[in-house]
Design a protein that fits this description.
Helix content: 40-55%
Structural class: alpha/beta
CATH class of the largest domain: Alpha Beta
Number of domains: 3
Length: 678
């Protein structure tokens, strides 16, 4: 008990001793107030003296004695008045490091009152002063008083911002910049100027030019060529890689990116040279590297002048215009002044989306979105009769191989019969060109989708043959909805001699299209995997959507009728390789961070696709990347009868026999074993 009593006494004694010392120590805010009062005294007097000096060209000797007398006599009175006003306005009680609009308004009011007193007081008590004395004196006074109050907040704010920015940059992702040319320099300068932490901080630069090795750009070292990428990533703890060589060839780009994807870094690339030409280089212009960048094939480049001259001023119909290929066709056509662009699609959401996009981008475009099915002969006939399209791009089709294996009759109805009905309507209504969108799956097909697309090719070849031989009136009208409609169309057919030219365009898988494997892989990646690959050895040809559409448009000009145009798509790519590259490009590890599972070939699929049947052969065109396949001959009259039989069987839902019937017509079609068992 005695122990605790002693401790309490010691504490109370200490507190009493401390309170005695505090009597002789002013609080910090009181010291600051004294400093401010001294400063204000000097500031308000200096402000008006500076104004007086300014009035006489900064020459003290030029100031009249009367003005100096008035100023000096009024200064003490004015000083006391200002200090009282400032005190009443609470300019000495505020915590200025947190100053806001309220404090600013108090400074304005206080200075306004002081200025008014200066004008009235000195004039009445001592005499009138120059006008500039009142004006500039009040301005100088306000500037000095306000600066003293807000300088602390400004300094603290800037210090805080710099501290946060420095801290953020210290923890920002380390970036390896590939390319020490103009594009790389501009991106580096943009990053150093903006200092946005999320963009990262460039720690090293890679360039294949040996003359740049060992040197630096804006303080960042050029550490070597592409062989040093892996070492630089390890040495500088790189998190991101920015590829900034817009002039690099596709092969060079592929080789460098193939090294980069082994680093587990996030990779971004500069899309193209046009940004350098247009001075649009910045960190924001970088995009995520895509699988297309790793294909190593130069983009298809064609002189499209004749194509766009052909399109201009014409009524163009795109069937399946809301799909991936159809919508890109619409975009490129819309950019070149067609007389009227018709978007025909059975899925209203897709048609609406592309319609709204084109209306926003081309407000003067004459555009019409039409909902309907190519299987509806009455609907398609009305569209052709009403709008008289001069060029038709037929992209409408069922394309998903596994789904069509489960619904073979639907594949025949939509792909083959739908193409026939559209071609028939085009022929009867004076259309100039009909361009069919085909696929490499039509070559030696093992699935019903590919077989029906081969039927489509045979249909356009037959139409072209019948027209060139003046036998177009012998082409039957399939499945008319009404007897009087049939009679009307047959009567009208006798009045028209068709000049329609029919061609087909065949290409492989389109990267980014609705049916492409890439969007599927990206969705699976977003879900954390696994990525599903049918077979480790399955390979496919690939091209981008713009390339495919360019070929289609070129065919509409180059075609003379009956041709099957084939694009040289380079070397085929393993789907398994695409999946693994996509994982690596995201900075992850295949089979570790994201699993890859093999599901087995789906019904109707084969390990590889061919661009041509062996019998067709190839003929080069003016563009060495575009070839023409010589069509395989077949009996056109027999084929027309077979098409009608297939139509009746498909509408009768004869799924058990439809594949066998198609195989008799498409002799290169060999149904997969699992499909036949179904």
């Amino acid at each position: 008990m005695v122990k605790y009593t002693y401790i309490l006494w010691d504490l109370s004694y200490g507190m009493k001793k401390k309170s005695k010392r505090s009597k002789f120590r002013l609080a910090r805010w009181k010291i600051i107030t004294l400093y401010l009062m001294v400063y204000d005294t000097l500031a308000i007097n200096a402000a008006y003296f500076a104004a007086l000096l300014l009035r006489f060209d900064l020459q003290y000797s030029a100031i009249p004695q009367s003005y100096l007398h008035n100023y000096l006599c009024f200064a003490p009175i004015y000083t006391v008045f200002c200090l009282i006003v400032f005190f009443k306005s609470k300019l000495y009680q505020s915590i200025w490091q947190y100053a806001s609009v309220t404090e600013a308004s108090r400074v304005v009011v206080a200075c306004a009152i002081a200025t008014l007193f200066q004008i009235v007081g000195i004039t009445l008590l001592f005499g009138r002063m120059p006008i500039s004395y009142y004006i500039f004196g009040s301005l100088f006074q306000f500037a000095l008083i306000a600066t003293a109050r807000f300088i602390e907040r400004f300094i603290n704010s800037e210090r805080s911002k710099r501290s946060v920015a420095r801290s953020a940059l210290d923890t920002a992702p380390a970036v390896l910049l590939i390319g020490a040319g103009d594009a790389g320099r501009l991106i580096l300068q943009d990053m150093q100027r903006t200092k946005v932490a999320k963009n990262g901080r460039v720690r090293a630069i890679i360039d294949d030019n040996p003359r740049k090795w060992g040197r630096s750009i804006s303080g960042v070292p050029v550490v070597g060529g592409r062989d040093e990428i892996l070492a630089a990533v390890k040495k500088y703890n790189i998190n991101k890689i920015y590829f900034a060589i817009p002039t690099a060839s596709a092969e060079t780009k592929r080789d460098i990116l193939n090294i980069c994807k082994e680093t587990q870094c996030k990779i971004k690339v500069l899309p193209g040279i046009y940004q350098l030409v247009n001075d649009e280089i910045s960190v924001q212009s970088l995009k995520d590297v895509s699988v297309e960048d790793l294909l190593g094939r130069e983009p298809i480049k064609m002189d499209m002048t004749d194509v766009f001259n052909f399109i201009a001023g014409k009524t163009i119909l795109v069937t399946g215009g809301g799909g991936s290929i159809g919508s890109e066709l619409c975009r490129q056509i819309a950019a070149h002044q067609p007389k009227l662009l018709l978007i025909f699609d059975m899925y209203e959401n897709n048609a609406y989306d592309i319609e709204q996009e084109l209306k926003r981008k081309y407000p003067k475009l004459n555009l019409k979105a039409i909902i309907g099915s190519v299987r509806d002969s009455k609907r398609i006939a009305r569209v052709f009769e009403m709008y008289k399209p001069e060029v038709v791009y037929h992209a409408a089709a069922h394309k998903h191989v596994p789904l069509m294996e489960g619904s073979p009759c639907e594949a025949v109805k939509n792909n083959a019969i739908g193409t026939y009905k559209t071609a028939y309507a085009a022929m009867k209504n004076g259309c100039q060109r009909f361009v069919l969108i085909s696929t490499d799956k039509a070559v030696n097909p093992t699935n019903i989708m590919g077989a029906t697309k081969r039927l489509c090719e045979m249909i356009v070849q037959t139409f072209d043959y019948m027209i060139k031989n003046n036998r177009e009136q012998e082409l039957p009208l399939l499945h008319a909805h009404m007897r009087d409609e049939l009679a009307f169309m047959e009567k009208k057919a006798q009045e028209i001699h068709s000049q329609t030219e029919f061609v087909a365009v065949r290409f492989g898988n389109v990267l980014g299209s609705n049916g492409s494997v890439i969007p599927l892989f990206k969705r699976q990646m977003a879900e954390g995997g696994p990525l599903t690959v049918t077979h480790p050895d399955v390979i496919r040809y690939f091209m981008t959507i713009p390339e495919a559409v360019s070929l289609v448009l070129k065919a509409s000009v180059m075609g003379k009728g009956s041709e099957i145009f084939v694009l040289d798509m380079g070397s085929p790519v393993k789907i398994d390789t695409l999946a693994r590259n996509l994982i690596k490009l995201s900075g992850l590890r295949p089979d570790v961070d994201i699993k890859i599972t093999y599901t087995g070939l789906r019904p109707g699929e084969k390990l590889y696709e061919e661009k041509l049947m062996a019998e067709e052969g190839l003929t080069r065109t003016e563009n060495n990347l575009i070839h023409i396949g010589h069509p395989i001959s077949f009996d056109n009259d027999t084929f027309l009868k077979d098409v009608k039989v297939l139509m009746n069987a498909s509408y009768a839902e004869q799924e058990d026999t439809i594949r066998t019937m198609v195989a008799k017509v498409v002799t290169t079609y060999h149904p997969a074993a699992q499909a036949v068992k179904k």
